[in-house]
Design brief:
With 256 residues, the chain is an alpha+beta fold. 36% of the residues lie in helices and 25% in strands. The chain contains seven helices and twelve strands.
Length: 256
């Protein structure tokens, strides 16, 4: 346990490389935006988004339009814009923007081998020294199906259990775990797609695990016939994956 926790903390330290200039990451200036980018991972289509992110959101299919965030996707790319919040101006003077945080967290997940959309770039926009908005560009997971429509499909629930177990094994807590935030690809691999509520804590207590899982169960029960038996089945697979050296491995039911 101590060895795995030490490894997890080492990966968290390595994730900060994504906000530095080195062989893997660089900074590109496009107008008022300084983009942190993955070296060698920015396609021609991605370059156009870096040059005009708002235009991309205006011309593409919107996946979400909210007061806090706007998300649009197309051509294998997804852009998330964190909109201006007047109540956060002073706080934002002393912390990284949500866009840069999401970029680093996604890279951290990648280092830990946890499936998520690959981080490509992030930037923040400032006016008069104040942070105004920020952006996070990632790859699209396609074709994909939202887990909310899959409950209580046992095979898909098993994939979600392995994913959440993997998160917890690697020292991550997620305050907004719900079927909406888990996607399944064509091979029924589960991906975590919302990293804003993700927090690295190193080692989760039993109370933290319960706090993570309860919203998931509550949300799952709203979208399907999520019975007590399904909950027990989920826990069986979750515990097996937490104890396994490879949490992504298929679940093998114990013999009677």
């Amino acid at each position: 346990m101590l060895r795995s926790e030490k490894r997890a903390r080492s990966l968290e330290k390595d994730s900060w490389r994504s906000l530095q200039r080195n062989s893997e990451f660089s900074v590109e200036n496009h107008g008022p935006l300084a983009w942190h980018v993955r070296a060698g991972r920015i396609s021609e289509a991605a370059q156009k988004i870096l040059a005009a992110p708002d235009r991309f959101l205006e011309q593409t299919t919107l996946l979400k339009r909210g007061s806090g965030t706007t998300i649009g996707g197309g051509g294998g790319l997804v852009l998330k814009r964190y909109n201006f919040r007047s109540d956060r101006v002073l706080k934002d003077l002393f912390r990284h923007s949500k866009g840069l945080k999401a970029y680093r967290k996604a890279y951290h997940l990648e280092l830990a081998g946890i499936p998520t959309a690959a981080a490509l770039a992030a930037a923040e926009e400032r006016h008069f020294g104040l942070r105004w908005r920020s952006f996070f560009l990632m790859t699209e997971i396609a074709p994909a199906q939202n887990l909310r429509w899959c409950v209580p499909d046992r095979a898909k629930l098993e994939a979600a259990a392995r994913l959440i177990a993997h998160l917890h094994r690697e020292g991550f807590s997620h305050a907004d775990l719900k079927p909406d935030n888990i996607l399944l690809d064509a091979e029924e691999r589960a991906f975590i797609v919302d990293v804003d509520a993700l927090c690295f804590v190193g080692r989760l207590s039993a109370q933290q695990v319960e706090a993570d899982l309860e919203p998931f169960f509550r949300a799952a029960s709203e979208f399907g016939d999520f019975l007590r038996a399904h909950r027990k089945e989920f826990f069986d697979r979750y515990e097996a994956a937490r104890a396994c050296s490879n949490p992504s491995a298929p679940y093998i039911a114990p013999k009677d």
